[in-house]
Design a protein that fits this description.
The protein has twelve helices and eight strands. By secondary structure, the protein is an alpha/beta fold. The chain has an eight-stranded parallel beta sheet. Helix 1 (about 15-30) links the parallel strand 1 (about 5-10) and strand 2. The protein is globular and about 45 Å long.
């Protein structure tokens, strides 16, 4: 049975003190509430340990926004999957379009990151998605297939089943544009079918596929009502509890 998940991605926002206050505010907002999805917050590295200690991690999962493609060693400024896991975080966001575009992360690099995350007991939230030109050229199916195949299809069935996927139409991130619920459902269903071709129907059916791309309180309910959309990877709206909670409650 696949999980419904609403995950926030704070990106490079919030000082340690601001982030801790935001996490505690969200924790308080969820107290005594029964929600129909798992809630995850992806924070900058410096927040992870403090946030994990300050909240009820049975109610809110903690994610790093990235990890290194090396296990350890002389890699100044990098943070390993093992270090992430040591903070109490349970998830790591990998392959975000910003990491691919700004930092040149290739499928080969991402394969190593995914393997290290899994080895250290982390659940990767693995991002895929096309840019505007690829969507307009009708190449969106082809693009997501290649991103999945090149980075993930070397995994065993057992390991692939541990992943969460996040489809993020790059043209809709931070632009105010959003894929329609029909567009989201169409590509999520295509992704699920592509996974089934490699790993079989059971693993495909149990794979959580999130939508990421200007999801907000106004469109979340419509998006999440679609059978192949299992939640959202939320950017800007996750930075304020009054905007994030209605998305959680859309389930």
């Amino acid at each position: 049975m696949r999980k419904n998940i609403v995950a926030g991605n704070w990106k490079m926002n919030k000082t340690l003190q601001e982030g801790l206050a935001l996490a505690q505010e969200l924790n308080d907002a969820l107290k005594g509430k029964s929600v129909n999805c798992d809630v995850v917050i992806g924070t900058p590295f410096i927040h992870l340990a403090s946030v994990a200690q300050a909240i009820d991690t049975d109610k809110i999962g903690v994610a790093a926004e990235n990890c290194a493609d090396k296990a350890e060693g002389a890699y100044t400024g990098e943070v390993s999957a093992k270090m992430v896991a040591s903070t109490g975080a349970k998830y790591v966001i990998l392959g975000h379009s910003e990491r691919r575009a700004y930092y040149g992360e290739t499928s080969e690099i991402l394969t190593d990151k995914v393997n290290l995350a899994l080895e250290n007991g982390l659940t990767p939230i693995f991002c895929i998605g096309e840019v505007k030109e690829e969507r307009e050229a009708g190449k969106h199916f082809e693009v997501v297939e290649e991103q999945i195949k090149s980075a993930l299809f070397g995994l065993s069935s057992e390991d692939f089943a541990k992943l969460v996927l996040a489809y993020e139409p790059v043209w809709a991130i931070g632009t105010g544009l959003t894929a329609t619920s029909d567009q989201a459902e169409e590509i999520h269903a295509h992704i699920r079918g592509f996974i089934a071709g490699k790993y079989g129907e059971e693993i495909a059916e149990n794979c959580t596929i999130l939508y990421g791309g200007s999801c907000n309180a106004g469109n979340a309910k419509d998006l999440f009502s679609r059978p192949n959309v299992d939640g959202g990877l939320i950017g800007g709206a996750s930075l304020a509890v009054d905007k994030f909670m209605p998305i959680i409650e859309a389930f």
